């Protein structure tokens, strides 16, 4: 299951949208799947059917997520983001369009001194993504 050598895994805490977010993310990246999922049952701390814990992979990179049963005063912040190096302009454009729907654009898709094509977005779940075109030089 996944990459057994991966020692450090990004862990995402949602409040009721973990499964929806996982399905959205795996629809955007090739070689992606939900690896394991456990849900809260009846009379357990979390809302029945929400994610107790899950692992999923995006293009072979493994992630973990949960739906917190506790309401927190914090959520995701743009200070940490998932940095995606795309092989083609089409890939950058597609990911930017899909990830920014219902979210926030922090840096519009454009050419910058550090990248021929780059965009920075927060998705509808609050997770932040930096998208860059691979430097072919």
From TrEMBL:
It comes from the Bacteria. Residues 6-132 form the PhnB-like domain. It holds the Pfam family 3-dmu-9_3-mt. SUPFAM superfamilies: Glyoxalase/Bleomycin resistance protein/Dihydroxybiphenyl dioxygenase (SSF54593). PANTHER family: PHNB-LIKE DOMAIN-CONTAINING PROTEIN (PTHR33990:SF4), PROTEIN YJDN-RELATED (PTHR33990). This is VOC family protein. The lineage of its organism: Bacteria, Bacillati, Bacillota, Bacilli, Bacillales.
């Amino acid at each position: 299951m996944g990459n057994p050598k991966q020692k450090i895994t990004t862990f995402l805490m949602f409040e009721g949208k973990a499964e929806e977010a996982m399905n959205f993310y795996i629809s955007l990246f090739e070689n992606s799947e939900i690896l394991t999922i456990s849900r809260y049952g009846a009379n357990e701390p979390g809302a029945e059917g929400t994610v107790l814990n899950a692992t999923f992979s995006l293009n072979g990179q493994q992630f973990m997520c949960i739906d917190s049963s506790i309401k927190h005063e914090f959520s995701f912040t743009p200070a940490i983001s998932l940095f995606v190096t795309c092989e083609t302009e089409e890939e950058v454009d597609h990911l930017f369009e899909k990830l920014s729907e219902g979210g926030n654009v922090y840096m519009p898709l454009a050419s910058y001194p550090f990248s021929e094509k780059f965009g920075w977005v927060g998705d509808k779940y609050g997770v932040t993504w930096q998208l860059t075109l691979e430097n072919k030089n």
